[in-house]
What we know:
Helix content: 55-70%
Strand content: under 5%
Radius of gyration: 18 Å
Number of domains: 2
Number of helices: 9
Shape: elongated
Order of helices and strands: EEHHHHHHHHH
Distance between the termini: 45 Å
Mean pLDDT: 81
Number of strands: 2
Strand order of the largest sheet: 1-2
Amino acid sequence: MKVATKKKESKEVVPQSFAEVVAASVEKLEQVLKNVPQDKLAQAKKEVDRLLEGDLSWADLAQYTPEKIFKIAEMGYHQFQIGKYDSAERLFKGLTVIDPDNYYYHQMLGATFQRKEKYPEAVVEYSVAVDKNSKDVVSLTNRGEVYFKLGIYELANADFDKAIGLDAKGDNAWANRAKMLREQIRLLKRGK
C-alpha cells in the first residue's frame, strides 16, 4: 500500500498486523467496487458461489478481472472467518495458481492448513509467503507457531526472532504474539 507524503512522494507502508492487511485490502476493494455496476457485482457473487459448489473450474477464471479475483479472495477470507476451511482452502488454492506471486493468498492458504492441522502444508505455504514478502510478520509468526506445535523449537525461535525484529516500534500484534510464544518455549525448556 502506498501513501502520499507532503512532498508528493510516495513511500511504502508495511501493514503491521493481519487486521491491517485485511483492512487495507477491503478498503482497496471498496474503492474499486464503487465503479462496478450492481448487476456485475451480483454476477460475480453467483460465480463465486458456483466455484464453491464445484460448478465452475479455476480454468474458467483465467479471463476474470482483478476485481473479480479480489472478490474471490474476500469470499475466501469470509469462509475462513466462519470456519468453512474446506471452502477457504479450495478458494485460496485456486488463487495461488492464478496469482502465485501474491503472498497474501499463500498466507491465507497456510492459515487454512494450520486450522485444519495440515502442518507440513501450512509450513510450505507460509514459507512461500515469506519468500514473496520478507516482511510478512503474520506468516513468520504462524510458521513459528506450527514449528512450536511440532516441537521444532530452533526453527520456531528463528521465525519468532525474525518477526520480532521486523517490529521496530514494538506495537505489532503479531510480533507481540511471537514474543509470547518464544517465552513459552523458553519456559518449556527451563522446566525440563
